[in-house]
Design a protein that fits this description.
The structure holds 2 protein chains of 2 kinds. By secondary structure, chain A is mainly alpha-helical. Chain A has helices at 17-22, 24-32, 36-44, 46-52, 57-64, 68-73, 78-87, 92-100, 104-112. Chain A has a domain at 17-89: Dioxygenase LigAB, LigA subunit (Protocatechuate 4,5-dioxygenase, Chain A, Orthogonal Bundle). In chain A, 63% of the residues lie in helices and 0% in strands. In chain A, α2 (24-32) packs across α7. Chain A is globular, with a radius of gyration of 15 Å. Chain B is an alpha/beta fold. Chain B has a single domain, classed as Protocatechuate 4,5-dioxygenase, Chain B. Chain B contains 10 helices and 10 strands. The longest helix of chain B has 16 residues, at 160-175. The chains are: A mainly alpha, B alpha/beta. At the A-B interface, α2, α6, α7, α8 and α9 of A face α9 of B.
Chain lengths: 116, 281
């Protein structure tokens, strides 16, 4: 039996067994981006690359929309998703702003204020 | 036998690697962070280690979800860095110390820590950035290295208590080593940060400062936290405090802080730096 990891911290998905199963193909694709040739192949035909790794429709849509929250909901692990973000030109403040619904400037200003 | 000269714990934010490559150390954004390392360089000159046991967490360079060891130790003569996918410069390789590695593997398994041994192990930014911060300037690395990786990718992660005990076992193993060497323990990661989810950007300075204080004076109190507690108080990736706990464990007994620095933010992270020495007893 796959036990549920507690999900009680607001705005936080703990990458447990359920996520590992759901996200395996997506995370494996992201792991492939350690290789520059794979990054180029993805950028050439994103959806074909996603299909080759067996991503679900939900995961392919999240990739198309560059939606980090949707990628996490589809089982993406932030350590691997960070590689996808890099391939499509997003840094940690870009994805922080996107996930919290603020502008990048506001997100950076909040970090400088110590997260407040 | 091995002498443990002390432990250094530091954050390993990838952006630091880009700043080093571009020579931005004196820029206003970076100065308060890099300045913290000058006393560490002087300390390293004084204590003169010849080997570094670097406890870090791999972020998907060497390990993937298909095979995810909880604790893994390098047993190679050399460790290469490699492309991580988002533009960090790839650093020159690091010399290993296979004899010490195999001693640690044997001693840890005898001590009931069943580690994975790795004769090939790519080391990612969590290993390379602290090395560059401690020994800047390029050129040959002045220490041999033993990489020790703790899983923070796939839950369940080892508990804070388990990581502290794991570090203590590394300390015991070093004290039984039959060759003379001077080892510095490096623990990398943290402090509070969260990159994922609607809670992205979470930072908790009060908790970080409590952890830095207690790590020196009362580390056992930190081992009462669960990983869930750490994530709640320090963010999803703030759980990287586990590497600090392991490094502190290796010192065994009481310790004192030789130097510390804390600066918010670098990228999306609260950064911390601690140098600790064992104070006997």
């Amino acid at each position: 039996m796959i036990s549920e990891v507690s999900h009680t911290i607001p705005g936080t998905t703990i990458f447990g067994p359920r996520e590992a199963l759901r996200g395996y193909a997506l995370n494996r694709m992201c792991f492939s981006f350690n290789d520059a040739m794979n990054r180029a192949a993805f950028l050439e035909d994103e959806d074909a690359y996603c299909k080759a790794f067996g991503l679900t429709e939900e995961q392919r849509k999240a990739v198309r929309e560059r939606s980090v929250l949707a990628l996490i909901a589809a089982g993406g692990n932030i350590y691997y998703l960070g590689k996808l973000a890099g391939v499509v030109g997003l840094d940690m403040q870009d994805i922080g702003a996107q996930q919290t619904g603020t502008t990048v400037e506001e997100f950076k200003a909040r970090l400088i204020r110590g997260g407040r | 036998m091995a002498t443990i000269v002390g432990a250094v714990t530091t954050s390993h934010v990838p952006l630091i690697g880009k700043a080093i490559a571009r020579g931005l150390q004196q820029e206003p954004y970076w100065k308060p962070f890099f300045e913290g390392f000058a006393p560490v360089h002087r300390w390293l000159q004084e204590v003169n280690p010849d080997v570094a046991v670097v406890i870090y967490n791999d972020h998907g360079l060497n390990f993937f979800l298909d095979t995810m060891p909880t604790f893994a130790i390098g047993a190679a003569g050399e460790y290469a860095n490699a492309d991580e996918g988002w533009g960090l410069p790839v650093l020159r390789s690091f010399p290993g110390d296979p004899d010490l590695s195999w001693h640690l593997i044997q001693a840890l398994i005898d001590d009931e820590f069943d580690v994975a041994s790795c004769q090939r192990m790519l080391v990612d930014h969590a290993f390379t950035i602290p090395m560059s911060l401690l020994w800047p300037g390029g050129g040959a690395w002045p220490v041999r290295t033993v990489p020790v990786s703790i899983n923070t990718v796939q839950h369940p992660l080892p508990s804070p208590l388990r990581c502290f005990k794991f570090g203590a076992a590394i300390g015991r193993a070093l004290s039984h080593y039959d060759r003379d060497c001077r080892a510095v323990i490096v623990g990398t990661g943290g402090l509070s940060h969260q990159l994922d989810g609607a809670r992205a950007g979470f930072i908790n300075e009060e908790f970080d400062r409590l952890c830095m204080h207690r790590l020196v004076s009362d580390p056992v109190s930190l081992t009462r936290f669960t990983n869930h507690d750490l994530i709640e108080n320090a963010g999803s990736q703030g759980v990287e405090l586990l590497m600090w706990l392991a490094a502190r464990g290796a010192l065994q007994g009481s310790a004192s802080a030789v130097h510390q620095n804390y600066h918010v933010p670098i990228s999306s992270t609260a950064t911390g730096l601690l140098v600790m020495e064992s104070s006997g007893a």
